Structure formats: structure tokens, C-alpha cells
Amino acid sequence: ALVTGATRGIGRAIVLELTRRGIKKLILVARDRQRLGELATEIKASGVEAISLSIDLTQSTSVNLSITSALRSYGPVDILINCAGVAHQTPFLLSRLLKVREEISLNLIGTYTITRLVARHMAARKQGTIVNVSSLMGKLAAPTMATYSATKFALLGFTQALRGELS
Question: Which residue of the set 100, 111, 118, 148 is catalytic?
Fold first, then answer.
């Protein structure tokens, strides 16, 4: 399994649950190299092979290079769990374009980029599971969360379209 956003929140909880359920190999993706190392050490104690990839999912070129290399080195991914995300809770009229772009780049484009790479391999093998973790904000928008909500609504549409195409 490959888990993005692996070192914090829901992503970390999923990594620990997969470990508890006996998965043998995990590719951990997050930006923070130190947290990745700590998590890898923790789950290796359970006998799980942990591969840490410090990747900023907003950087498409490095995502392409790192994931392509990981697939070559460690074999196919059977389960892709996209958890990486960021939320900048700011009133719309006070929002900054730089922060808006970061949310869109990570929450939507980053998910698209890694999913496209892994899904191609899954489709060629005719097997695999992709889980995109969204948010309640993907169904119900809230004040001060305009961009985050937009990315999570988009992620739901993206997921529904993939389900139809890839199944």
C-alpha cells in the first residue's frame, strides 16, 4: 500500500491500522523527512517493510520521478490511499492567492498526479484499489473554507469519475 499524508492525522491512523491488520509493505509519502523516519521506525518494529518517500505533492516533476522510481524498486502498488491535504481557514475576502494555489495544488493536483501514475500500473495489471480521503467539506461547504471546500467537492467528482472509468 502507498499512503500519502502518512505522518499526520487520518493518514497516520490509516498507516497504523494497515500495520495492525498485517500488511507486509508500506510506502509512506509525506513532506516531513523526520516524521517519516519516526513512523517508519515505529511500524518496522511490527515487522512491516516501510519505505519512506519525502515528497512535496505540489511538485509534479519530483512526484513523477519519485513514484516511478519507487514502483521500479519496490514493485506494484495494490492499494493507493490519498490522504495528503491542507486547509487554510481564512475568510474569502482576506484570502491570499498563494495560499489558495497551495490548497488546489496539494489537495487536487497532487492527488491527480500520484493517482495517474499509480492507476496506470493498476490498470495494466487489472487490479488495485484507490481510496481518496475527502472531507465533510466536500459535501457541505462552510464559511472561511471556500477553497478547501472547492478542492474537496472536486475530489469527490474526481473519485466518482475514476470509479466509472477504472472499474
Answer: 148
What does the pLDDT read at residue 38?
97
- Please name the residues in contact with 133: beta carbons below 8 A apart, sequence gap of 6 or more: 5, 10, 11, 14, 81, 82, 83, 85
Total residues belonging to the chain: 167
**Is residue 74 annotated as a catalytic residue, yes or no?**
no
Contact (Cβ atoms closer than 8 angstroms) between residue 82 and residue 130: yes
140 CB-near residues (< 8 Å, 6+ apart):
none
Q: What is the pTM of this model?
A: 0.95
The answer to whether 30 and 7 are in contact (CB under 8 A) is yes
Residue range 17-41, pLDDT digits in tens: 999 999 999 999 999 999 999 999 9
